[in-house]
Amino acid sequence: MGLFADLWGTVKSTFQIGLSGVKLKNNSANLEVMAADGTTPAGITASKVSITGEILEVNSDAAGSGADWKYTIQRPASGMTAAVTLTLPTDDGSASQVLQTDGDGVLSWASAGSTASSVKCDTTTIAYNDSSPISLLTLPASSIVHQVEVVLDTPFDGTSPTLAVGVSGTTSKFMGATDNDLKGTAKDRYVTNPGETAGADVMIATLAPSTASTGSIRVHVFHSVPS
Asked: What is the residue extent of each domain of the chain?
């Protein structure tokens, strides 16, 4: 009788493992694993691979200690607007290369441009009525400030407005108040080249508008972290 029951299971659209176990179900020539109720999706777990719903776990039986950890790949829980297909490269690439996409999901290896020693520019717009100190940026550790540039977009109309650029405790470290003229002509540029090494400091601008009722400048900070 038991043998007959086993054979009978092979000709039905579902095959149940045990009296209350999971069911293997044929769905248009695709294998589905369902719970005993026949409608609730069930996960497939092997000794080293687990696929459950939207999560793929490699080495799912990992001890979670030492070098024995599981690796999980999971789709975003929300935010997707279309199906995503990623085609992996044909080889494992070379040292220091990174994966890049062609915009259609085809991935390939590309050289990673070094950003450690590249010069970056941070820009802050300051108006006459901004309260000092004005935070410009947080400098990366071991960075060098190569140049500070003040662009006078709208001249200040105060008696003697001033601007200094530095850090807390040394407010003129990178540009002193006499290194620029906020009452100058529109589009004037004032530049210093401090070449100062800095820690992870917050770079600030200290503005004294001196009764100004108009005025606007941009402060450009050029900095890098040497490799």
From this structure: 82-113, 120-224
